[in-house]
Write a structure and sequence with these properties.
The protein is α+β, with helices and mostly antiparallel strands and about 90 residues long. The protein has one domain. Helices cover about 40% and strands about 25% of the residues. The chain contains three helices and three strands; from the N terminus they run ββααβα. Strand 1 and strand 2 form a beta hairpin. The longest helix is centred in the C-terminal third of the chain and has 20 residues. The radius of gyration is 15 Å and the shape is elongated. The termini are far apart. The model has no long low-confidence stretch (mean pLDDT about 75).
Length: about 90
């Protein structure tokens, strides 16, 4: 099956301190819609966009490239990546 294009999903970790000031709580947000709207014609251009975004971003953000031709299988991979990210933050 030929890929029609690629989209980039971004996960962002929100870090908040509790009222006592000691406990740090981390929660991961769902992908931001603006990254789902931009379609990259090939994988190299999507990877280049991710590299540029990583240069401007902090370590509390992760990016995942999803091919358009695999809406269910690829989306399952994104969903699993999101769950892994949430579990990693729980273990910090």
């Amino acid at each position: 099956m030929k890929a029609l294009g690629y989209v980039i999903y971004q996960f962002y970790d929100f870090k908040t301190r509790m009222d006592d000031g000691e406990k740090l709580e981390v929660s991961t947000s769902a992908p931001h819609p603006e990254f789902k709207k931009r379609i990259y014609s090939d994988l190299l251009s999507a990877e280049d966009a991710v590299k540029q975004m990583k240069r401007l971003d902090f370590s509390n953000t992760s990016y995942h490239i999803l091919p358009i031709y695999t809406p269910e299988e690829g989306y399952d991979n994104i969903r699993e990546s999101y769950k892994e990210r949430v579990n990693e933050n729980k273990n910090k």
